Amino acid sequence: MLDWLAQLGRxxxxxxxxxxxxxLLLLALLRGLPGLLxxxxxxxxxxxxxxxxxxxxxxxxxxxxxxxxxxxxYNTLVDFGAEASLGPVVAxxxxxxxxxxxxxxLFAGRAGSALTAEIGLMKATEQLSGMEMMAVDPVKRVLxxxxxxxIIAMPLLAAIFSLVGVYGGYFVGVGLLGVDEGSYxxxxxxxxxxxDDVMNGVxxxxxxxxxxxxxxxFEGNDAVPTSEGVSRATxxxxxHSSLAVLGLDFVLTALMFGxx
Amino acid sequence: xxxxxxxxxxxxxxxxxxxGKRVIFxxxxxxxxxxxxxxxxxxxxxxxxxxxxxxxxxxxxSAGSVTVDGLNVHTLRHGALYELRKRMGMLxxxxxxxxxxxxxxxxxxxxxxxxxxxxxxxxxxxxxxxxAVGLRGARGLMANELSGGMARRVALARAxxxxxxxIMYDEPFTGQDPISMGVLVKLIRSLxxxxxxxxxxxxxxxxxxxxxxxxxxxxSDGRVVAHxxxxxxxxxxxxxxxxxxxxxxxxxxxFHYRAAPYADDLMxxxxxxx
Lengths: 260, 274
Ligand SMILES: Nc1ncnc2c1ncn2[C@@H]1O[C@H](COP(=O)(O)OP(=O)(O)OP(=O)(O)O)[C@@H](O)[C@H]1O
Ligand SMILES: [Mg+2]
Hints:
The complex is a heterodimer. Chain A is mainly alpha-helical. Chain A contains nine helices and no strands. The model of chain A has no long low-confidence stretch (mean pLDDT 92). Chain B is an alpha/beta fold. The chains are: A mainly alpha, B alpha/beta. Adenosine-5'-triphosphate binds at residues 19, 24, 44-50, 93 of chain B. Magnesium ion binds next to helix 1 of chain B.
């Protein structure tokens, strides 16, 4: 029993210690951001590695999610004779919810895990130590550009996801099920509000981008420098950032659209 | 504080350091003289690499001080520590090359980070350093296409790229064939003399190291067990020095990591424990 309590205490302490280290790293990352203004190339490289290389999975998933939405929502709406509203319903679902959330989950799996593994391996092979001894701060040179790259890439990917999804819904709704093309687009235009819907979606995806990339960079930097340590850190990145995204999504949704 | 030229470049006083419960250093005093080659030797696992990391400010001692060129490494602020590190080169035991860059870019890396040299001058510098380690022809290879010995030579070229005042070599000779070993030994000596560097060599190759070093420290079990010039150590009556310099298996330096008596260990194995 006492053993069990001690164990619990150790886990608790370990958790708060990591939380503290995570926040210290966040501060250091933020302090590293201004220096990147002088070296935009470092960030562009990361946007490419993180963002452009995630494009394929985002586009494919977006298309299918949009198509499924078109099909499912059509079947519900048609019962009420409201299939003309398919456009705005698909668009709102994507822009407010599925775009940011599904993109963030895919982003955690595709880019977050890669970031953690890359940084963890650099640590395990002493590349980060080596940089320190060359008087190059790895936080500024390696971690901060990746952090910023992720933060920039994520909202763009979410926007692309939503855009492709809207076309996926269009393909199924208008192309296959015969919804009127004019109403699909025009109702969407009149019912989707820029500030309330689009901007809130952008804010969500930005927040998810910060959180997922922060977790990925932290886990890599904090990994035990062995192959097993890196593999555990990679798993933790995917699990923790997915949970964080889903939890934060509820909080943000409640703040934006909820209780009023 | 301007340092006069006769004071040691690195002064270590009363250094204590522990990893968990295991005490690695227990009161080490050590001086590294300017312009000289100082060798640090000792059995595997005594903490030679750890000592270099303490000097470089990557690890923190639990007591004692490390002073480099008059600056206490462990009380420096972040910026000042990085300024100091620009003047220290370190050759890692593993090489620690950046795997996403090729040989040329690896050597160019510190120059690109710390200077604004025009590309043509940078190229000349990089090729000069690579020529010195005999790998000018390998400049297009990626880090993972090098053998262990080649990687360490590239790392050496990188460590001297910024013309530091001091270089710490962690096992520079491991994995070198007799020819490149000979070249490296000469290179280290000539870098030291021509550029007025201060060098610290950690190595197990007693003969080669003794041949070029001016002063030797023998570490064992967390303490300095003997020190002196190579001749002094060779003549020394200290068991430590004799055992290490001659490479004798028996003597005060244990070959084994600290453990329970062998027979006891074998007996407990019967009960199915590790
Ligand atoms: N990250 C670490 N965590 C815990 N203990 C460590 C760590 N790194 C090294 N040690 C321990 O510190 C001791 C000294 O290690 P160090 O690498 O400095 O030895 P060394 O003298 O360089 O050995 P070698 O000659 O084999 O390179 C070793 O006994 C090792 O068990
Ligand atoms: Mg070592």
